[in-house]
Amino acid sequence: MVKKEDFKDRDAELKQTVEEFLKKDKNLSGYDINVRVVKGKTTLQGVVDTLSEKNHARKVVESIEGVGEIENYLTVSTDGAVDDRHVYMEVRQELEGDPLLTDTRIKVLVNKGEVSLTGKAESLDMKQAAGEDAAKAMGVKRVINNIAVPELTETDDTGLIITIDDNDIVNEIRRIFAAEGIENGRLKVSAEDGVVSLEGDLSIEERNRAMAAAGKIPGVKNVHAYLVNTEKGELSRAARAAEEIKRSFEEDLRLTKIPLNIYEKEGHLVLEGTVSNTEEKRLFDEKLHSLLEEFGKELVVVENKIRLVEE
Fold first, then answer.
1. Would the CATH topology of 153-232 be identical to that of 237-308?
2. How far apart are CA 246 and CA 288, in angstroms?
3. What number of CA atoms fall less than 13 Å from residue 241's CA on the CB side?
4. CA within 13 Å, CB half, 188
5. Alpha carbons 63 and 17: distance in angstroms, whole number
6. Domain 4-76 belongs in CATH node 3.30.1340
7. pLDDT one-digit tens code per residue, 220-265
8. For a tag site, which of 91, 111, 158, 282 has the least CB within 10 Å?
9. Predicted local confidence at residue 22, as pLDDT
10. Closest CA to 107 of 129, 91, 125
């Protein structure tokens, strides 16, 4: 049994490590970011200039072994003089300045600082690059990346168009992993309709390398990593699905005022809290339904305990 004092000592050490990583990072060293750690759960609070920096702070903390759940409460400070027209121009400038996206046609819409991206990209890493570029622009509060990654096709010697299937994607990922020295023996790779799943006992750094490499392959629409070594600060399949669902709710500006508690317990996704009107309940249910279409298969049961308490 772990003593309460042991938890406190571990949390204090982890808090110091997180603070050191944030202060050493060239993109974050100028910010006063408050770090709180309770039983491995790390909370970030403070103010940064761009959404990209907020997202980067999460990535920095995720890279630290021993970190479990992360609550990113960093606020993006926007100048009141920055309107949607300026945001649009800055986003377009970021996209057009990225050499990876020179042949990509991306449409940009901005509404009250919320940026929507649509269009097509040849690969997942191009889609992700567009989202990261948009997040760098001043005034951006949220990025909704609806850029599509179409199925990959090629033409054979007879002129017949052949669709590259999931088996071809898995084989190409294996080839890339071998060429880049990414551990294959401990990593299970599968694909379904272009969505790649990676599962195995790897370090956080190895996981990130594997996800980045898989995302470069044309035809890959998304990459999920299910790594089960919790001693390395990683999560089970169900816990990772719950973390992704929780993060999506936290980043949805329409739902940030709703007091929610979302967690995973023995494969169960538990959602607790209250909504104050039927419109909030409708938005919540629509959001949850959409997320469960993507992550539901990793969960045993969903316990929706959200209550409607009308004022």
1. no
2. 10
3. 24
4. 8
5. 11
6. yes
7. 888 877 654 544 444 566 777 887 888 888 777 777 777 788 877 7
8. 158
9. 93
10. 91
